[in-house]
Design a protein that fits this description.
heterodimer; A: 114 residues; mainly beta; 4-stranded antiparallel β-sheet; 11 strands; B: 115 residues; 6-stranded mixed β-sheet; globular
């Protein structure tokens, strides 16, 4: 069955370190998204991609970057981790099209920045 | 900018009770609305969606939602809940931002069903 996997599932890091969260999907979807979930805020969009070599900033992109070198992967990098980036991070993907297609989600990565 | 409000952050019900979770959005034009659910230990998944037509939308597992344009609301309902409905429920609206469509999410409601 097609799926989205995220790794690691849990990560503890220190302020100032670079961290990369992996997202891999086997749906063969063109669209991929990164969200963060914080108490009281629901999910907020960090970055998204509509295909290979395409990346776009979302609502809360400061301090994060992504790159899309193939269809299956969209790694999220925190250039210099800050305590404000402690959160649960979700990756999602959807079929081609800039309008809405159902988004399928990964299991999430819980990141703690000390 | 569009926003979505879910009024209840935590709801506790007994089995067989009726459920209504509130969702309000802040946009007066054409809206596309969604409810997603995250069961314990599982991925977020789509419960139901409204694009157009009949304002009463039926989803999986006996859930339904009613789009009331005059009230800017899209409340989720289920006549009789089960213990297995324990989950976190998110309302979302599709918003046009920077020439691309994005989902704007509510803060979520954690539902606990007591057996």
């Amino acid at each position: 069955d097609a799926e989205i996997t995220q790794s690691p599932r849990h990560k503890i890091t220190e302020t100032g370190r670079q961290v990369t969260l992996a997202c891999h999907q086997t749906w063969n979807h063109n669209n991929m998204f990164w969200y963060r979930q914080d108490l009281g805020h629901g999910l907020r969009l960090i970055h998204y991609s509509y295909g290979v070599q395409d990346t776009n900033k979302g609502e809360v992109s400061d301090g994060y970057s992504v790159s899309r070198s193939n269809t299956e992967d969209l790694p999220l990098t925190l250039e210099s981790a800050a305590s404000s980036q402690t959160s649960v991070y979700f990756c999602a993907s959807s079929a081609v099209g800039r309008f809405y297609n159902e988004q399928f989600f990964g299991p999430g990565t819980r990141l703690t920045v000390l | 900018a569009q926003s979505v409000s879910q009024h209840n952050h935590h709801v506790i019900l007994s089995e067989a009770a009726s459920l209504e979770l509130g969702c309000n959005y802040s946009y007066g034009g054409t809206v596309n609305l969604f409810w997603y659910v995250q069961y314990p230990g599982q991925h977020l998944q789509l419960l139901l969606k409204y694009f157009s037509g009949d304002p009463l939308v039926k989803g999986i597992k006996g859930f339904e939602a009613e789009f009331i344009k005059s009230k800017f609301s899209f409340n989720l309902r289920k006549p009789s809940v089960q213990w297995s409905d324990t989950a976190e429920y998110f309302c979302a609206v599709l918003s046009l931002r920077d020439s691309n469509y994005q989902l704007i999410w509510g803060a979520g409601t954690k539902l606990i069903i007591k057996p």
